[in-house]
Design goal:
Elements (H helix, E strand, L loop, with lengths): L6 H11 L6 H24 L19 E2 L4 E4 L1 H12 L4 E5 L1 H20 L5 H11 L6 H9 L3 H18 L2 E2 L13 E8 L2 E8 L9 H9 L5 H11 L7 E3 L1 H14 L4 E4 L4 E3 L7 H13 L4 H21 L2 H4 L5 H24 L14 H11 L2 H17 L5 H17 L8 H24 L6 H30 L4 H7 L5 H9 L1 H21 L3 H10 L26 H22 L3 H9 L7 H13 L21 H15 L8 H17 L10 H18 L20
Parallel strand pairs: 3-5, 4-7
Antiparallel strand pairs: 1-9, 2-8, 3-7, 5-6
Helix pairs in contact: 2-12, 2-14, 4-7, 5-6, 7-8, 7-9, 8-9, 12-16, 14-15, 14-16, 15-16, 15-17, 15-19, 16-17, 17-18, 18-19, 21-22, 22-23, 22-27, 22-29, 23-25, 23-27, 24-25, 24-26, 25-27, 27-28, 28-29
């Protein structure tokens, strides 16, 4: 029998490896956006990999069509590299070694001659000649020896010859190699190496200053100088010429090693062909250089596996950063699924759009591609719909993604970064949709500054300036205008609480609020007070005051169905008097469910709906719970009272704004029970209310700090004291009587 595979066990092991906060749908959305973008990148690379037929073109003929480089690439100019290498080799000197032993042998041989000559100075001329010729038969002629012997200063002449001989020997007599050995080396200087024990001396010597055996005559004359008379110099030359030998030897191995080292250090000459360059220009004569570039272009268009991996890794880096770092790490909360979908769609469309636009504008190499890409539009949508910090992150990440995909060059990247970064800041404090137009004008101005700076840096011709400046301005203005069209449907799709949407919802003349005013005036007044309290507190703690105000306006819209069951709308009759506590609780807590349903019908933002759903949390309805306990005590059956049956069925607030509305709702309702409130009494009472909510765990998930709690308490007390201030008693005046005249 075949062993059964435990698929459930395998699935459980896989689940343990997955982090608890991992969400599959957002991950699949990010993966899909990455794969879509990668497919566009690869398709664009394949479209440009067909190459050109080199047989169609020939050097010296006129090109019948253009050939445009669809990718930027660098290649080695082999001919220029060869010439550069040869030029570097021409700087390498030939290496010669000074032979101390050869110099010593020469000097010993000369010394023996001087001793022999001096010993026979007292002999007769014939005896002197015979002695010297016997020792050195091939060195001297009889005439030279006779003239030397007859010289009255022959000892002095011999000493002078010794000085000249030693001087020439010490400087060195070079043994030159064949001319072909020195043909590609430095023609002016050589390197002379002297080794003395452990000491090595290197010296650069000029070829014009060195002496070889065939230049001994010049060496003697240069060395003698003013040391002797011209006649003596001639005699010294005749005496010493046969004693000289080469003592500086050419080193073939070291010279070749120097040449090879120079070749290895010579960097190749690299030529850069920018994307969009016309390698072959229609109507122009094709040169050999053009044919070289065409051949390199064909080779480069064969997709290099390293280039493919590079694009994959860089794009993966961009989309991974979008998936893993967008959320709590940037905006302090987890992104909703719809928000992740929006970011993924915009990112994929942006990078893919840049690639396609680059292909369409390939011939306009001088125009930055980002001029035609609404970077500011994408950034402003993210800023309005999600968060400004996330918008700034995308303003950097998306242009880099386009740059990594080879859609942007450096100038396009700079312009896109300027446009995106400015878009992430210009909407701060915007409260009206008309502010989007102002933002577009500011972005247009900054785009113009950026494009002018880019053109100045590139040395662009003056005739190109007006056109590029126009497109830069149009890009910014169009981005601001396009937000008008995209924002409303995206607000609905994401159920986003944008500033513009919240301002619209804060209009007290809205039909739903007018209906609340007419059907439940007490609830309406209560909602207005809660809104003022919540807005002030959120302003003090740095939360979203607009969201808190709107959430407070709508938090009790569920009470419109049964307004008479809520104390703020009651006059003399309380319908709960005839109901059981459980029935009353069912009616009371049902207003939360009805409010959420009405919010969905009105398509209110999700954050507002969360405030409606969470403004009571899961707290106990204490009045009717206490009433149920009293009835249970007086009952014969003693049926236990379950606290959950008398609690709201919501969840504790998850945002600071929702928590503030909860506290404001509770405080505004409870403070009505205070009789003649003072500052101290009000502070103590509000602190007790907030502490009770904290102890019951209603604020545990709201991320409110203790400092926030204190700030909220002070804001509530300040507002409530201003509403409940005392007034002076006006005197009673009988208006039927005329005022008395003091006169």
């Amino acid at each position: 029998m075949k062993p059964k595979i435990n698929f459930r066990g395998i699935a459980d092991k896989i689940k343990k490896l997955v982090p608890r906060d991992f969400r599959l749908k957002p991950f699949l959305a990010a993966a899909g956006a990455f794969l879509f973008t990668l497919a566009v990148v690869m398709a664009n690379m394949n479209a440009g990999s067909s190459g050109e037929n080199p047989d169609e073109f020939e050097a010296g003929k006129v090109a019948e069509r253009d050939v445009i480089a669809e990718h930027s690439f660098t290649y080695e100019d082999t001919e220029a590299t060869r010439l550069k290498s040869e030029a570097q080799e021409r700087l390498v000197p030939a290496v010669f070694h000074y032979s101390a032993k050869a110099a010593e042998d020469m000097q010993n041989n000369w010394k023996n001659f001087t001793v022999l000559a001096a010993d026979h100075f007292n002999d007769t001329e014939s005896e002197f000649i015979a002695a010297v010729r016997g020792a050195y038969p091939e060195y001297f002629s009889n005439i030279i020896l006779s003239l030397f012997f007859r010289s009255p200063d022959r000892q002095k002449l011999l000493d002078q010859a010794t000085q000249v001989f030693n001087k020439i020997t010490d400087s060195g007599i070079f043994e030159m190699p064949p001319d072909e050995s020195l043909e590609r080396l430095n023609p002016d200087t050589a390197e002379l190496i002297r080794s003395t024990g452990t000491r090595v001396e290197r010296e650069r010597v000029s070829y014009s200053s060195i002496y070889t055996l065939d230049k001994i005559s010049s060496a003697v004359h240069d060395a003698a100088g003013s040391l002797a008379s011209p006649e003596s110099v001639t005699m010294i030359e005749n005496l010493t010429e046969f004693f000289f030998a080469a003592n500086v030897i050419f080193s073939q191995d070291e010279t070749v090693a120097r040449v090879m080292e120079t070749r290895a250090k010579t960097e190749p000459v690299m030529n850069y062909i920018e994307r969009g360059k016309k390698v072959i220009r229609k109507g122009f004569i094709i040169t050999e250089e053009d044919m070289t570039e065409l051949g390199v272009l064909n080779m480069s268009m064969q997709n290099d596996i390293r280039l493919i991996f590079s694009r994959v890794l860089l794009l993966l880096l961009v989309f991974s950063s979008l998936f893993f770092f967008c959320g709590k790490r940037i905006i302090g909360r987890d992104l909703r699924d719809q928000e992740v979908y929006l970011i993924c769609i915009l990112s994929a469309l942006y990078i893919s759009g840049t690639i396609l636009t680059r292909s369409l504008t390939l011939s306009m190499n001088f125009v930055p591609v980002s001029l035609f890409i609404p970077t500011a539009l994408v950034v402003m949508l993210i800023e309005i719909l999600i968060h400004p910090r996330l918008a700034l992150f995308l303003a950097i990440a998306l242009p880099l993604g386009a740059y990594f995909s080879d859609a942007y060059d450096a100038s396009s990247l700079i312009l896109a970064l300027v446009s995106g970064a400015s878009a992430s800041f210009v909407l701060q404090g915007a409260e009206k949709r008309m502010d989007l137009v102002k933002a577009g004008l500011i972005i247009a101005a900054l785009n113009c500054v950026a494009i002018i700076a880019i053109m100045l840096g590139q040395g662009t011709e003056a005739a190109v300036y007006p056109g590029l400046i126009f497109w830069a301005a149009f890009n910014g203005i169009a981005s601001g205008m396009l937000v008008f069209g995209f924002l409303p449907p995206l607000e609905q799709a994401l159920s986003a609480a944008t500033t513009f949407r919240l301002i619209e919802l804060s209009d007290l003349n809205a039909p739903i609020l007018r209906r609340l005013f007419t059907t439940a005036p007490g609830t309406y007044s209560h909602s207005i007070m809660v809104a003022n309290l919540a807005e002030t507190a959120c302003q003090d703690i740095g939360a979203n005051s607009f969201l808190a105000r709107v959430g407070a306006y709508y938090h009790d819209i569920g009470k419109m169905e049964n307004p008479q069951f809520f104390v703020e709308n009651q006059t003399d009759v309380n319908p709960h008097d005839g109901l059981t506590p459980k029935h009353s609780v069912t009616i009371l807590r049902n207003h939360v469910k009805l409010g959420v349903e009405k919010a969905r019908q009105l398509k209110l933002p999700r954050d507002v709906m969360e405030i409606i759903a969470d403004h009571h949390g899961n707290s106990i309805i204490t009045w009717f719970y206490s009433k149920a306990l009293k009835q249970q005590e007086s009952s014969v059956k003693k049926t236990p009272v379950n606290p959950e049956d008398y609690s709201y069925q919501g969840s504790p607030p998850k945002s600071r704004e929702s928590a503030v509305v909860m506290l404001a709702d509770m405080t505004e309702a409870a403070v009505r029970t205070l009789d003649k409130p003072t500052q101290t009494k009000m502070e103590t009472f509000v602190q007790e209310l907030i502490s009770a909510k904290m102890e019951s765990g209603q604020l545990a998930r709201s991320e409110l700090t203790f400092r926030d709690m204190e700030t909220i308490k002070q804001a509530f007390v300040r507002m409530l004291m201003s509403y409940n201030h005392s007034r002076i008693a006006y005197p009673k005046i009988d208006i039927t009587k005329p005022p008395e005249n003091d006169e």
